[in-house]
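INFO  loader      accepted 1 record
INFO  loader      residues=462
INFO  predictor   begin
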Amino acid sequence: MFKTLINIFRIPELRNKVLFTLFMLAVYRIGYHVPLPGVDQAAMDKTAQSGDSGSPLSRLADYVSLFSGGNLSQSTIFGLGIMPYISSSIIFQLLTTVLPSLEKLQKEGETGRKKIQEWTRYATVPLCLIQAIFWLSFLNNSDPPMVVPELRGTFTFWLMGITSLTAGSIFMMWLGEQIDEYGLGNGISLLILAGIVARMPFAIGLLVEQTSFSQAADATKQIGVGKIIFLVFSFIFVVAGSILITQAQRRIPIQQAKHTRGRRVYGGQRQFLPLRVNHGGVMPIIFAQSLMLFPGVFFGWLAHAFPGVRAFEFLNTEFARGEYVYIMTEVALIYFFSYFWNTVQFQPKEMANQLRDYGSFIPGMRPGKRTADYLEKVMVRITYVGAAFLSIIAVVPTAVSASMKIDWHITAFLGGTGLLIVVAVALDMVQRIEANLLMRNYGGFLSGGPGQKGRRIKGSQF
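INFO  predictor   done
INFO  writer      dumping tokens
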């Protein structure tokens, strides 16, 4: 591994990409510590420390902080994170499958994709404005107040706040695009990865503070050595399982038809059509967890507005994090969005037509409708397995936190959206570095063949 790391910095082009990527991530982390004008950071920190970790507001703050790298105790110019741009991208991705004009534009190639990307950037601005207004309204009307008294409710506070949050989110979008063009890896994904990894020191510090051998530990929240060993092995096991399922494929054999031209016969090769088991990636969990924020807020408001009504109190209790109804509803939503996302993204009819046009077929299946029906049947089956995996990943942090009485900020690294994003982005980064090294005949992280031991190509400039 160390030899591979040295080889990365031997190649000037790869070295420059890695250093540029690290520099952009450093700029992002520096900007995250620039506070929002007019916000009382001390009051926010006090409110966050005294708040309920299972409340709907706390769950909303935790979900938003996943894409901004912080927590409720801080409000910075990067407070909105990259979430508005991600939301805009998802909207246009869904509209592409619904609107024929956008679908036609996407099929035009690079020019069409650039046009859709431009519209995505434009749509990010109004989303930033809407989310900034909601966040500033919460800060301005909170009890206790989180805005300095001189600026509370003034036009100056609203102007500075909306402008700063919108500019910060747009700047993060620009950083991601710069990494895409001049760096290594997907820029937006790397920004999210940096935000998630930045929360790990806080979780480790919280774990050390709550251990039984720490004098500062609360007697009701002590974590013994046995629980720490369990957390370590659980983290290793869940990460290994996430890598396995993320890379898992269902390979369908494809036979290429033979073509005779003159005296030569072309084709006839046997290949495979890989179908990912977790085709939806992290999107089903994102959609499910986003919707699970609303029942807690809604039933909490009903229980507060109509005190004494047992039905509202029961629903408010059952839709708290870790409860049975909450978990089962989240699992059902994950299954629903897994099939929904595959229905939107996976087009078996188009794939069958492409196989027919290229002169390929699935052995035992006639080209056309029979092939499309077979692909759809296979995808339905493997989606069931992929959705089950996503459900386990989503439930593990909540179940461990509720059963072992461990803070959710610690168990959050045992699964959920953040872990899947970290695994997917890390695998993509390793594969990109691997491709650059093997292209220049250097051994990579995942390769160790006899012909890949760092030899240089004769006459190569490297």
